[in-house]
Amino acid sequence: xxxxxxxxxxxxxxxxxxxxxxxxxxxxxxxxxxxxxxxxxxxxxxxxxxxxxxxxxxxxxxxxxxxxxxxxxxxxxxxxxxxxxxxxxxxxxxxxxxxxxxxxxxxxxxxxxxxxxxxxxxxxxxxxxxxxxxxxxxxxxxxxxxxxxxxxxxxxxxxxxxxxxxxxxxxxxxxxxxxxxxxxxxxxxxxxxxxxxxxxxxxxxxxxxxxxxxxxxxxxxxxxxxxxxxxxxxxxxxxxxxxxxxxxxxxxxxxxxxxxxxxxxxxxxxxxxxxxxxxxxxxxxxxxxxxxxxxxxxxxxxxxxxxxxxxxxxxxxxxxxxxxxxxxxxxxxxxxxxxxxxxxxxxxxxxxxxxxxxxxxxxxxxxxxxxxxxxxxxxxxxxxxxxxxxxxxxxxxxxxxxxxxxxxxxxxxxxxxxxxxxxxxxxxxxxxxxxxxxxxxxxxxxxxxxxxxxxxxxxxxxxxxxxxxxxxxxxxxxxxxxxxxxxxxxxxxxxxxxxxxxxxxxxxxxxxxxxxxxxxxxxxxxxxxxxxxxxxxxxxxxxxxxxxxxxxxxxxxxxxxxxxxxxxxxxxxxxxxxxxxxxxxxxxxxxxxxxxxxxxxxxxxxxxxxxxxxxxxxxxxxxxxxxxxxxxxxxxxx
Length: 638
Ligand code: ADP
Fold this sequence. Notes:
Layout: H1 2-25, H2 27-32, E1 35-43, H3 51-65, E2 70-78, H4 87-100, E3 108-111, H5 114-126, E4 134-139, E5 153-157, H6 161-171, E6 177-181, H7 186-199, E7 207-210, H8 216-223, E8 230-234, H9 248-258, E9 263-264, E10 277-279, H10 283-298, E11 309-311, E12 316-319, H11 320-325, E13 338-340, H12 346-387, H13 388-403, H14 405-431, H15 437-465, E14 473-475, H16 477-494, E15 497-502, E16 510-512, H17 514-533, E17 540-548, E18 554-560, H18 588-598, E19 602-607, E20 613-619
Bound molecules: adenosine-5'-diphosphate.
Adenosine-5'-diphosphate binds next to α17 and α18.
């Protein structure tokens, strides 16, 4: 039984631990257990519509919102102390607030600025006994603990009148007068008394122009006619000399606009209302600190036990627009100064984007320039290369004609001899009685045909020898093959070789330069004839064949039964100047390949299965496959 009880206790403990851990890591669930608290913030003389109370209220609230354990409602009251300076009136407000919050459990009072603390203490006495007080923006004395109270805590600021005057002296060399502006409200008077105290230290150094307690119109008139060597210190003005109630921040703005001297102030929250700068009390920071301390007190810590926080330091803060207005250079500001509302120029704001974009554009321009330069250079090089190649092809053709000298002479001599025989026969026939005119006509016909043949051979030689740019036309590959074979017949016969021609029927036309393709065919044929002469035993055979390929292209192949191609030299065959012949140039095949490739085709070399080698060129069929007109070459190895 006892062990069962222990087990149940243990289980409960574990479950509760898991739940606690779960709540800790899941704020949504933690929120469900947040405790509700009410805090009352008391502003001395301005409502939440004014910039300072608004900034303070939201800074405290933002600290409260951070609490994972407490949900604090922040009530705000404006005590209007300047309106009711009479003790009886204050008592009436006290009673009013007591009634107003009679049914609301107030857990904490936050009086803002010195005049509110006394009121908060009397309110506590009358209506909220034992309720802790955490003050905000109290003015620190000594170590920050209020001299007259030890049972309250809060966050205090220091007011740096002397520092602000010193700042004005630094930025306005030759400063002789300080015009002090304050109204007749409670805060106005409090700050004025502190200022006067601080200004005693400047007796004999600076003159005081007293612009306190004046009607606004008069004040604006006065500030517009200040001596050149002066500045304004604006304290606070909730009520002017004529008893008019005014928003202090708006008065400060009007004074600044009307003034002919720069306006200095003491609170960072006033910086944006025409103030050039000052040694600023940081009200938002003190409010955040107040919120922090208030949370500790609301969580159960004793206010009396918490050391008050004092926000010291009063940094030199400036409004950039006012610095510009008064011609104060940023370089003259003390080190560590905070400059707000700085209008950054497009250059200032987007400097790195602009620099980046410019760098990118420059880089891009440079790249484009280099690219264009390289393209021009390449184009020139290509043009020049195309001219080293055209020239080479020409030399190679001339060399081929030289090689074929014997054959070509035979090709011309043969029709010339036939012409002579036919002419003599015609003469004899004409001398007969009667002359056999029919035979004479036939002999003359033969003479015409032979002269045409001789002309063709001469034209062919002339074309081969001429160095003219390629001319692309539709042409018959069969014609190229048969012309070439005819031209080497005598050469072949002299070598004891036979050349067979196998022409495919209905071969489609190719688009190309007749002379160049002729050159290729002749080159392959002469190489084949040279290789078959190495064959010790007949038959020495060379076969020229045209064909139509499965892929639609047309081909021309030259096969021989010579020694074939050594495997080690296959990949060098088409390299310029590669030769295995003692008197070879090594240019023929490389020129042939470049010609064929310029025609959009390809040239390959293979060893035959049995004996010899086959060189085969492929060309696209039909005029549609218009190649680039060039005798360009390739340095690729075969
Ligand atoms: P060249 O004829 O001046 O040597 P080519 O470029 O025409 O220059 O030929 C290069 C080389 O290719 C030749 O030296 C030879 O070794 C090889 N070759 C060309 N045709 C044949 C062929 N039909 N059989 C074997 N080898 C060949």
